[in-house]
Amino acid sequence: MLIPEIAELLHISPVLAENIIYTLVAVVILFLVKTLVARVICRKIADEKRRYHVRKTVTYVYTGVMIIVIGSIWFKGMSSLGTFLGLASAGLAVALHDTIANMAGFFFIEARKPFRVGDRIELDKIKGDVIDIHLFQFSIVEVGNWVDADQSTGRIIHVPNSMTLRVPLANSHIGFEYIWNEIPVLITFESDWKKAKEILRRIGKENAEHLTPGAQDQIRRAARKYLIVADKLTPTVYTTVKDSGVMLTIRYLVDPRQRRGTEEKMWEDILTAFAAEPSIDLAYNTTRFYTLEEHSG
């Protein structure tokens, strides 16, 4: 056998040389198996989302089998393995606190599923669409920041899994997949605000009322798990008074990823409708001066 010669060449014991050779063989075999399975998955599964989840499952199984095989090579007998695990766990708890916290966060994500791949989330002022979940971190495509209306910035942010255990997390797709959006429209005090409110109500219904039935169905399904109560889901317009005019605010439901598109369409309709109404003017910050003329007797 080559083991004694290898041990002598490397100046190590035959037992250590044997363990190294068996470990290398196991790693190569398991890697080839994983590669073969990955190719089969790519050929057989056309759906990208399903393919991603299957690949992740294969990776977890591969990692678990690797740990078991290598552990059985280096630690023969339960007593040696138990001693090693006891010492290792004590050392890891101190030296790898953040790593263990990230692993705990991963198991929390997999068990409780506060979000899934494809969901839009926000935590610790970081907002984006989840594109990958790993053992120690998950990745999101950033939205917002310097880009208006929750559109992508193009950056990928890697977030430690432990963040899910320490800070509040908002998910735009679990339970209720719509968000409320508001468009404030400020008109002058001299404008016919009643007519303007009717115009805005009509524009809101034309652009967003079709989402109401789907939102109602989602609320009924989500109410089985969450306490979600929403009495009025149709688009509406609220009236308030500001320093420089009357504020009319359109409030409507929208898919988080369609917020900018719907807002653009509504503003174009608003500008077109107001241009045709001489009794309605958009307000802006102005300064007025009044002079008191003095008349001599």
Structure characterization notes:
With 297 residues, the chain is α+β, with helices and mostly antiparallel strands. The chain has three domains: 3-95, no CATH class; 115-171, SH3 type barrels (Roll), CATH 2.30.30.60; 180-208 and 235-275, Alpha-Beta Plaits (2-Layer Sandwich), CATH 3.30.70. The chain is built from nine helices and eight strands. The chain has helices at residues 3-10, 14-44, 48-74, 78-95, 97-112, 163-166, 193-208, 212-222, 259-275; strands at 120-123, 126-133, 137-143, 152-160, 169-171, 179-187, 236-242, 245-254. A five-stranded antiparallel β-sheet has the order 4-3-2-1-5. A three-stranded antiparallel β-sheet has the order 6-8-7, with helices on one face. Helix 1 crosses helix 2, helix 2 packs antiparallel against helix 3 and helix 7 (193-208) packs antiparallel against helix 9.
List descriptors.
single chain; about 300 residues; alpha+beta; SH3 type barrels; Alpha-Beta Plaits; five-stranded antiparallel beta sheet; elongated
Task: Provide a short characterization of the protein structure.
The chain is of the alpha+beta class. Helices cover 50% and strands 19% of the residues. The chain is elongated.
